[in-house]
Structures are given as structure tokens and as C-alpha cells.
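Homework help thread (please don't just give me the answer)

Our assignment gives two proteins as sequence + C-alpha cell strings and asks us to describe the second one. The first is just a warm-up. Here they are:
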Amino acid sequence: MNAGAGRWVTAVLVAAAMTGSACMPSRDQTTEGGAKTLKVAFVTNNSADFWTIARRGVEKADQELADVEAEFRLTADGTAAEQQRVVDDLLTRGVDAIAISPVDPQNQTALIEAAAKRAIIFTQDSDAPDSARLCYIGTDNLAAGRQAGGLIREAIPGGGDIMLFVGKLDARNAQERIQGIRDALAGSSIRILDVRTDDGDDVRAKANAADTLVRYPGIKGLVGLWSYNGPAILNAVREAGRSGSVRIVAFDEADDTLAGIKAGDIHGTVVQQPFEFGYQAITRMAQAARGDRSFIPESKQIIVPTLIVNRANVDEFITRINTLRGR
């Protein structure tokens, strides 16, 4: 973990300690000074533990901003249809701005276009750059994919076949991570056999990994691109008795992923900073709703850097992330 990352984590931990785990309170329609209370919402693309940390960022911003009422909406089934229902409900209730992680950006353009006529729309975590979203806040997934590719090259220096696993190929973050991995592996003797999808289903994710181990007994590495994929792969590899011989690279900071790194069964993981997704989405949407859009760069993307966690820094990272989670 570099010095800049350490400073970010320290700042976040101080903020988290100050806010605790309080829920976002309901407020009157106006503040004490008579100003209109802004209603903003943060919408996830599934119910993974990853979003627990983003919620802490939403809560922190909500408590800091006296004229803002922030709502955190967790989507359970991870489908575009459910996101549509959530967005429709929020718009009906008159929200001023929504930050959404689109499940299928290409096919949700119409949703975002329609919503943008009634509220300010940001994307977070997964972008939809061809839509009317005002700004994206989140990871540069191409860069994150390249970081994962670097971990793969470290884990399998002699080369060999690997398989990638992700929830959906429609999601832009999945597409960009895959491309970043391909970029990083170019010129190496590591070959990507395929990308297996699971529609966000933990059971199917594990079954995909287990099936891969049977179909390709000589496979050298399994790579999980979404937060739950790492634990699913780890469990399949352990049950097959292949720990150590099949190398694992993951994304995000699921408990089992971090435990797998400590045990030496996972080579490393690329972690995002979901607290910043939540915190910056709420503060920036409020700023835009007040009429100030000067913070939006020409690219319309505010990038939150990713970090690498491996066996050398996993203990320190676990301590910090557990504090952030309020444990």
C-alpha cells in the first residue's frame, strides 16, 4: 500500500469514527434557515458486502450536509428490472438527484435518459458514458484490470491457462476489467481460456469455478472480477484440494478473500474505495443540485484510485477496513 493510499485510509477511518454507524435521519422539507432540503439517493447494483462500506460514505455525507436528505437503496436481485423499479419509485417521490451503478449500461441508456429529464443523474461504480448522466464517480476499471493482470503475472510467472469469472458481461466495469487484464497479459505466456458468468449468484459462481477445475485439470489460475467471485473460487479450489497449485486473483475486500490472502491461497486482490463512492456521490450531487457544476472535469469522470492488497499488507488492511465497517 503506497503512502497516498495510507493517507486516504487514515482520513476515512477518522471520518468513520466520528460518524459511527448511525442511520440517515429523515428531515423536514426545509432547513432551519428556510432553504429547501435536497433529496438525493444512492442505488447499488446488487447486495454484496462491498456496498456496506459505500453506505458508510453516504451516511457520512448525509450527516455533514444540513440541507441534504440522502437515501441508500440496496438492490437485492441485481437486475436491470429491479433498478428500474427503484429509480421509478425515487422519481415519484421527487428526489433531486440519483447516483446509480447500472447493471447493464448499454441497455439502460433509456432509463437514464428518462430519469435525467426529472432529476440529476450520476453513475458510480459502473459507468454509462453514452447516456445523459452528468458525471461518473468510481474506479478506472481499465487501470484496475491492468493491476489485476500484474498480479496474475506475479502469481503465474511460468505462464499457463487461466479462467475469468464475473457476474455479467454487460456491465461496463466487467468489460473494462477484462480488457485491462488482456492488456497487462499481452506478450506473456498466460492464456485466458474464457470468461464465465453467474448473474450475481454465489452458488452458480462457485459451481462455475468447480466445473472449470474439472474440465481443465491443468489450469493454472482463476480470476474473480466481482467481490463475491473471490470467495466462490477459493471455496471451489479448497474443496478440490487444489490450494497452492491453482493461483487465485480477486477484486474487492470480501472477508473470505482477505482471509484467503492471509492463508496464502489467494495471491492478491485489487480493492476499490467504495466509501469514497458513497461520500463523493452525495456531496457532489448536492453541489450540482445547488447549481455549481464547476467540479465536473472535461471527461465527466471523477476517478477514485484502486489499491493492491497482498500477503505483505493484508493484516494492516484488515484492521483498517474492519474499523471502517464499524466492527
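The one we have to describe:
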Amino acid sequence: MNNSISLDEVRVATLDLLNYCKSNDWAGYDPYDALNSRVLEALPFLNSRIPRLALTQALKRSPINIRRPLLVPKTQNAKAIALFLSALLKLSKAGLADQEDLVHPMIDQLVALRSRDVPYSCWGYSFPWQTRDMGIVPRGTPNLVCTMFAASALLDVYEQRQDSQCLEIAVSAAEYILNELYWDDGNNVGFSYPLPSLRTQTHNANFLAAALFCRVYKHTGEEKFLSPALKVARFSAAKQHSDGSWYYGERRSQRWIDNFHTGYNLCALQDICRDAGTTEFESCIRNGFEFYRAHFFREDGAPRYFHNSTYPIDIHCVAQSIITLLAFRDLHPGNVRLADSVFRWTMKHMWDDRGFFYYRVLRFCTIRTSYMRWSQAWMLLALSTVLQELHTSQQDQRIDNAAALVRA
């Protein structure tokens, strides 16, 4: 990797963030945790669709965090724990050996957070959440996205440490998605999200699940995962617009184009090509990445949330921008420099010296609330990705230098 990112600056920020997360026992608030409020539980007349939506949006949008007086507890979130686990493994590969002792407890915690009374390994959020038009999702209800990230983290463990138990759990997660969420009605095909009963077309969910299936197929050789993966990936790839973009989903209420879900799509397609041994999505990836790079960044490096407007500048978009730019560093010579610009802008505008990242920068104010899953877990993964890439680049340079000396 063309090293234009300061190793020392990223390392310092990473260790400060890691210490913050450790000191909070990996638990915290979430943008969507309003329905965990004990006040809401005590006032059941407020516990209906409109009040639930209103409270969730109020807490999410408020520049002042009012969760403490509303008795919203900090929680460990399965998806956050999965992201932390993947980040710790990257830090280990980057030479931060003192993080080794954190990996096994993180695996145990992720396994302990599995959804109960389900014959598969699967995961849900640590809060109930009210969807816009499809009912309430109870706390801990397994869903595709949480399950996919948890299984991917366990596959990271397997690939780095050959832990067969982690592979078995990841396979069980893939079987949950295959048996409970995959559907094909002859005309359309996809993976249900956020509930098994909903046959919606959410493209990032389709691509993420397809990528997990291909990865499981690579390690197990089980053909039952490959065909559905490619079928769903082809369906969502065909929904790409001529300019390279995707809507979030195909429902009328889902027709927006945003930064981090587009990044999910592109990275998942890259993984599908790698693990399924196919090149059929390469043009889709190139077109999508050209749109991504052209529409989601200001000149100063600030990542846009939507393709046609800057605000809000969201920390999740920051993290996914860094990850996506580095994943596709070979597609554009300026990707590493742009990732560096994103990092530097974020440290200036969204970093708190207490060791965490803010949630959002709005046009006239900044929401400084610390969210463990949405903000800190994703940024730790992004920064650990940078450190791993820099470490690998340095190793490659040393090998090249040694080879040059031998030739001389």
C-alpha cells in the first residue's frame, strides 16, 4: 500500500479508542435503543407504534443525550462484539500482540449473546425496535445482519487460528439464513430482513448474506450454500442503476442511496468474487465504485451520508468509507490518500479526547453522544484495518528490500 497515512497517528487513536471501549466493558448506548427505556415499560399506554417511533427518533436526533433520565441502560450488543472481535484479530496481525488476551473472552461473549430458543446459532440486537411500516422487532430476535457479522467474525477467528468450533458455529449461522431467511418465488429471490416473514428486497442484506455463504462454501465445500448465494447476488446486481448506484431496497419507502450501505454492497461483491472464484461481478464492482468515489466525499475528505447531500456526516459512513477505500485501493491510485483525508477530517471534527468518536456532524451542530455499536465498534474496525494494511505494506517492503539485496 502506498503509505500516505501516518502509522503513529492511527496507532495512538486506535489504542485510545480501544482503552475507552475496554473501560466500558464493550457496552454502551445505541442510536436505536430508546425502547429499552424503563420509563416506557412503566407507562404501557405509550408503548404503541407512534410513541415508539417518536421516542426512537427523538433520542436518535437529539444533540443532548437524555437516556440516563429515561432509564435507558448501556448494553453489550452482539453486532458490536462481532465487530470488536474482527478488529482485535486485525490488531493482532498488525503486531499489537498485547491484544491477544482479549480475543478468547470476546469469542466467549459473542457465543453467549446468541438468540435463545432457536435451533441455530443466530443473533439479534440488544434492544427492541419499531420499523417504519412493518411492526416491532423484539429484543434479541435474530436477524440477518447481526447473524452475518457474528458469523463473519467467527470465520475471521477460524482463518487466523484454525478454531474448528468457530467454523461450526458460523456454519450453523449460515444454515439459519438458508433455512429461515432465503426465499425464491420463481420471479424474485432474496433473504428476508429484518424479519423472516418479510420478503423484501434489501440489497445490502442480500449481498452480505451471499458473501457469507460463499465464504462458508470455500471452507466446507458444501454446495447448498453456493447456488443460493450466486442467485441472490445476481438478482441484486441486476438492480444496479446505469450510473453504478443502488437504492437501499426496492420498496417505495427504501429508495434512497447512501454511503455505508453502498460500501457494504461493494465489499460483499468483492468477497463473493474471491470466495466463489468468479469474475462475473467485476464490471458491477467497477461501476459501483466509480459512483461511490465520485458522490460520497467532499473535497476536504468529509464523507457524505447521501449521494446528493452532505449532512448528516455520520461516523458509520466515516468507518465504512475508510474500509471501502482500502479494500479497493487498486481501483484508483488516490484511494489511500482519500482514506487519509477522511481519517484526518474525522480526527479534527469527530474525535473526543476522552477516547471516543462523536455520532454525527450536522449543518449547525454536532451530536457528541458516544454510541458503542454504531460509532466506536465500527471505528475500531476501520482503524485496525488501516493498521493491518500498513503493517502488511511494511512487511512487503522489507521482503522486496531483502530480495533486492540478494539479487545485488
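TA reply:
I won't write it for you, but here's a hint about the kind of observation we're looking for: The CA atoms of residues 28 and 74 lie 4 Å apart.
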